Each structure stands twice: as structure tokens, then as C-alpha cells.
Amino acid sequence: MTNQPVFVLGEELQALERAEFETEAEFQELLARHPRVLDFGSLADGRPLRLVLVAREMGVPTSTDSAPAYWLDHLFVDADGVPTLVEVKRATDTRIRREVVGQMLDYAANAARYWPAALLRRSFEDTCAKDGRSLQEAYGELLGDQGDRSAEEFWTTVEERLAAGQMRLLFVADQIPLELRAIVEFLNRQLRQTDVYAVELTQYRGGGDLRVLVPRVHGEVATAAKSPSGHRTTQRTTRADMDAAIASRPDPDVRRTATALLDHAAGEGRLECGTAKYRSMRIYYRVSGRDVPVATLSLRDDPTKDDLSFAFGSITYHLGHARAAAFAASLPTLPGLAEKLEALPAKGYNGWPSVSLAVLASEPSAVEGILSAIQQLIDGQQLIDGQ
Question: Highest taxon of the source (predicted)?
């Protein structure tokens, strides 16, 4: 890139010379205050992308018990619930070439496991408080005409997208080296769910406080060859949608199983619309005075992949390791589920262990066992609270 100035024509011609950011902290503060410079692309419904800051220096733990091992420069999110992880480096930092890539992949892998919805929501609301913004204003900007969508539902969607790897990774620098551009384009071709970009943000200064910022995005060519996270179709599934999908299942036992799970949740807890590409609903139960996401029922395009998955990350976050461990131990031993539950202690009781509806339907007492485990989760916590 040349050092050719840019010109502003008003009453007279003014030349703006290219200028480096004095410190990385200045660079980071600019992005936090003006995320519009990172807005490129569009949302699922065609609206322009608008990133909203969740937190600066977002802690990234490597287990549910540990303090943050890493600190991400910025976490943003858009109205579709797609998280955007941003790492900022100046060209003078030699880590901009390769080390920053490994750093970002560490952040993404651990964020997908250890950032539950409740933590994301609290981080966003803490940021609003520090910036002196009312939550009503902040959620109005974030959700726009989706005002009927609850904050809890939105952050659960963000958690689900993280768990599925549906996110953006942005490397931002005042100069992007060729090595980093090549890595970004390679990652974009290989990663199906995650979009990776390098954003070169050039600064020009003129007289007084006049500044011009010129962003240039690298990685869009590789992203165009796949379905980018920011362009995925967002579908909000209703109970009627679920019932219609259930009715299309050829196995009557599968139909009875899915209906029984939804009916119990509607009667004893509550259901929330899923936003995945397939039909899904999130299942909440009231535990210790709060609505806890316990499971998600998903009906796929391929009925053999229909499943029930348990939200252990959220259960652990809301109720603690002991309650999560007791819940895991009380679930019935089923093919495909048992081994996933056995792996939970090593993961700090984080993750989404799942069981197929076909397996549930083939085991006569499986549904009753799951509903009994849920009731124990609720009653056991209430007994502890009453002591």
C-alpha cells in the first residue's frame, strides 16, 4: 500500500496523510466506540449488518472451574445472534503474522464450550452500565423490530450458535501482511460454519481533529463460496411447526415421544422458539426461582437425525456442578447418550450431550426416565433452597 494522501474537498482542498495508531489501546478503543467500521455484509433478512459490543477484554476460560486463561480484545454480536470475535494488532506487532491465528482459534474453541448464555448476557449488560446506556436503549438497538423477542431467548440463540461454530472471526490491523491474508482465505475455504476475515483499517489525519478511517476486508472471496454465518436463513419455529413436522414422521413411537416431551415442557415449564435452520424448540423449567434452559428438541430435514440434547453448560452455570452432576447421573442409560454423559466430568459438565428420538422411542421407559430426572432436578434444588 502506498502512502498517497487522500483529499477532502470543501471550501478548499485538504490533504489527509496516512497516520499510524499511536498505541494498540487507542486502536481497540476506537473499535469499541465505533463498530460501524467493521459492518460489512448483511443479516439473514437482507438488513445491513450492525455489530453491537458485548464486551472488551472478554475472558476466555479453558474449563468451567478456571479463571480466564485468555482475553479476547472484543466480542460483538449482531441481531441474528451471530457472535463476532475480534483480535486487534498493529502492523508493528510481529505476532500479526502467525501467532495471532493460533490465539484466535484458542479463543473460538473455548468460547464455544465455556460461554453460556447467562454469562454473555451479563457481560453485555455490564458493558452497557459502564458506558452509561440504558438496557432499553441497548436492546432496542440490538433487536430492533424483534422487540417481542426476550433477552433470554436472544442470548440462548447466541450460545447455540457458538456451540455449533456459527461465528465470525475478525483479525483487525492497520496493515494486513500477505501471510495472514493467505491463512484467512485458507481457513474460510476449510471451515463450513465459521467465517474468517482480516480487516485492514487505515487511518488518515488532517488538520485539527479531522480523521478518516478506510476499512478494507480480506476473505470475502473465500466466504462467497460457502453459506456465510451472516447470511444463514433464520427460522423461528413455533409449536405448530413442530407438530406439523412430528405428524410427518413415519414411526408412531417417535411421534408419541416427541409430543410427550413438548407437552410436558408446555405444561410444567415453557417452550421457546428455536432459530436454527431446522425446526427446534428450547425447553425451560423453573428451578430455584429462575428459568433454566434444560434441553432442546430438534427435528431435522433427515428424520433419522431428530434428537433431544441437554443444555449442560447452562444447567451448570445456573445451578452449579453438583446439581449438573446429579442430573447427569439420574438420566436413563441409553445407547449413544451414556458415553456422552460419561465424558461430561472431564468437560466440567459443559456441552450438549444428545440422544436420538429413534432411540428414545425404542426404549419403553426412556421418556418417563428423562421426565423423572427433570423432576428430580427441580425438586432437588428446591429442597436445597429450603434447608
Answer: Bacteria
